[in-house]
Amino acid sequence: MLIACFLGGAAPAPVSSTDTPTADQKAFQDFFKSRFPQVSIADFANGPYAVDAGMRKQWEEIMQFPPYDFALDEGRTAFGTKFANGKSYADCFANGGVGVRQDFPYFDTKTGEVVTLDLAINRCREANGEKPLPYQTGMMASITAYMAETSRGKPFDIKIPDDPRARAAYESGKQFFYSRRGQLNFSCASCHVGAAGERMRADILAPAMGILAAFPIYRSDWGSMGTIDRRFTTCSAQMRSVPLPPQEVAYRDLEYFLSYMSNGVPISGPGTRP
Amino acid sequence: MKALLAFVSLAFVSLAIFSVSAHAATQAEAEAAVADAKRAEAAAAQYNNRWVPAEAALAAAEKAIAAQAWDEAVAQATKARAMGLRAVEQSKEQETAWHDAVIR
């Protein structure tokens, strides 16, 4: 399988080249639906468990006592706790922050940048005189776990506004996803498109479609919770590419592209992975 | 006479090879090698594409400099520079090559 990843796996043959976000999304989703015809669009939110019966069975047993429950409780409490100035996270988000995960990341036409849920949480904290949280694990994972849980079942609904900067951010994320980097010469697509559903040692590689729907996740390999930033940085390191700092523009653009590609896949986070 | 000439030539060649292989790097050579490696890594960073082993080799080279192990510093810095240059090459190639991988 490693060889398949190096060679780009079973890369799909180009059939058209309209290259608009809408056309990209349709081609992307058609590819995965055709590759995994037995998997419903909703089940793509469950990553490797959607495409491997053995792993799914193990997961169902794990889910009798979900390992993210402690983080979820911690996040729920933190979310409801007021800041020193008397305000709270709820004051920073639409609908009090409940059921909004599926709308992140979004492109902010005022600032001209992609805003992820994690970034919005830290900006909320800073606007209210609190210190920002570390991005990869800990309380950030707990709060996003709670917010994701309030959005469970709601499909990703990422929009690309009619703004050349939004389109540029989308294109930047797309380029990052498909570009090979690092000593092993892998791209994100090498594993999560061409080799999706195949084994990489003991792991089953998750399909790219819906891959972010379950975040944050409790990963057995980590023995703790992790955010999307943690996953991006560990993926980079596994390709022997020096990871970028969390919430770097390139990572936010990548999250924007991947989430837009997954429109229609319901949020399932917090999740658990091997 | 012919045999003597051959012997003397062989002796000179052997001496030359021995001199090259036994050449110990100087502090100046080690520092220059590290500076070259840093330039290559800086170029790779411009593409957001530094390689983990290149960074490790550069760190090892700097550690060797601190320990005044000039040969080791040159060896590690040379490795780091080669990987830094390859990372730049990879990034330049991918500026167009990534299009071929797009699902269409």
Quick structural gist:
By secondary structure, chain A is mainly alpha-helical.
List keywords for this structure.
heterodimer; A: 274 residues; mainly alpha; Cytochrome Bc1 Complex, Chain D, domain 2; three-stranded mixed beta sheet; two-stranded antiparallel sheet; 11 helices; 7 strands; globular; B: 104 residues
Explain this structure to me?
- The complex is a heterodimer of chains A (274) and B (104).
- Chain A is mostly helical.
- Helices cover 42% and strands 7% of the residues of chain A.
- In chain A, strands 6-5-7 form a three-stranded mixed beta sheet. Chain A has a two-stranded antiparallel sheet with strand order 1-2. A two-stranded antiparallel sheet of chain A has the order 3-4.
- In chain A, helix 5 crosses helix 7.
- In chain A, 46% of the residues are buried.
- Chain B has 104 residues and is mostly helical.
- Chain B has one domain (25-101).
- Chain B is 80% helix and 0% strand.
- The N and C termini of chain B lie far apart (77 Å).
- The A-B interface holds A 8, 11-12, 14-17, 19, 24, 27-28, 31, 174-175, 178-183, 185, 187, 189, 193, 237, 240-242, 244, 250 and B 48-55, 83, 87, 90-91, 94, 97-99, 101-104.
